[in-house]
Amino acid sequence: MQHNLKELRKEYSMAMLDELHTNADPILQFKKWFQEAMDAQIIEPYAMTISTVNSAHRPSSRVVLLRDVSEEGFSFYTNYLSRKGQDLAVNPFAAVNFFWPDLERQVRIEGKIVPLEAGISDAYFASRPRGSQIGAWSSPQSEIIDSRKVLEDAVENYIHQFEGKDVDRPQHWGGYCLIPDYIEFWQGRESRLHDRICYFQHSDGSWVRSRLAP
Ligand SMILES: Cc1cc2nc3c(=O)[nH]c(=O)nc-3n(C[C@H](O)[C@H](O)[C@H](O)COP(=O)(O)O)c2cc1C
Questions:
Q1: How many angstroms is it from 114 CA to the middle of ligand 1?
Q2: What's the N-to-C CA distance of the chain in angstroms?
Q3: What atom in ligand 1 is closest to the CA of residue 85?
Q4: Rg of the chain over CA atoms, in angstroms?
Q5: What's the average model confidence in pLDDT over 146-164?
């Protein structure tokens, strides 16, 4: 490797974050930051790393695309039989991370994941490009396959199967919603003295805002 990783560092000085300038509702605060990420033309600011934990307590992380945010939570779509789907079947708790480097911001979200209602997944699936719909049928996500050809043959097969018809949603493919009980907003500051404003949810549903040491 050409670079000495220990010497690579960046000072963060773009902005500050304090208790007074954050919304009391963390979902509204997320929407504000998300809009700012869109305005800053960050590439795919809706790409988020989600970590799940399997039955042997081993975590694993991967990127998925955020497809909806509401007061209920954060939604994404995937294969229910995938590694993440299997993890979530035994342990519904997950953690999500957004890193928006151009804004020197990170958002961390934790909570419980529930599958979306079938009708919501149907509607989203119907809105996807046909190639992605065929892909959902063709890919046994997370399984070992012998070669790329296995995938290409499956695609050919499903193109033929659905010729002249709408592609319906496979039962093994659909959405999940992360219902948050912890959301943290991180703004990089000078000398690593970053701002961290976090929200914990009480059992009555109300949110408590606190500052964490960086
Ligand atoms: C930018 C980006 C977006 C992705 N979006 C999704 C997605 O929305 N849903 C999905 O299932 N996988 C998505 N993936 C692929 C996942 O990262 C991962 O490879 C796949 O879901 C299998 O993960 P698993 O084996 O841990 O279940 C995306 C990957 C990248 C890099």
A1: 18
A2: 30
A3: 27
A4: 20
A5: 98
- Is pLDDT at 2 greater than 90 in this prediction? no
pTM of the model: 0.97
Distances (CA, A) of 31 to 16, 45, 46, 161: 18, 12, 11, 41
Q: Which residues have CB under 6 Å of ligand 1?
A: 44, 47, 60, 62-65, 76-79, 82-84, 141-142
Question: 9-127+171-211, which class in CATH?
Answer: mainly beta
From the list 171, 211, 206, 173, the residue with the least C-alpha distance to 16 is 211
Structure-token match 């000085």, residue found:
13
Which candidate, 160, 201, 155, 205, places its Cα nearest to that of 182? Answer: 201
State the pLDDT at residue 7: 93
Tens-place pLDDT, residues 59-103: 999 999 999 999 999 999 999 999 999 999 999 999 999 999 999
Catalytic residues: 192
What residues have CB less than 8 Å from 113, skipping those under 6 apart? Answer: 88, 92, 93, 94, 176, 177, 178, 179
Q: Where are the domains of the chain?
A: 9-127+171-211
C-alpha span between 117 and 123 (Å, rounded): 10
Asked if residues 92 and 73 have their Cβ atoms less than 8 Å apart, the reply is no
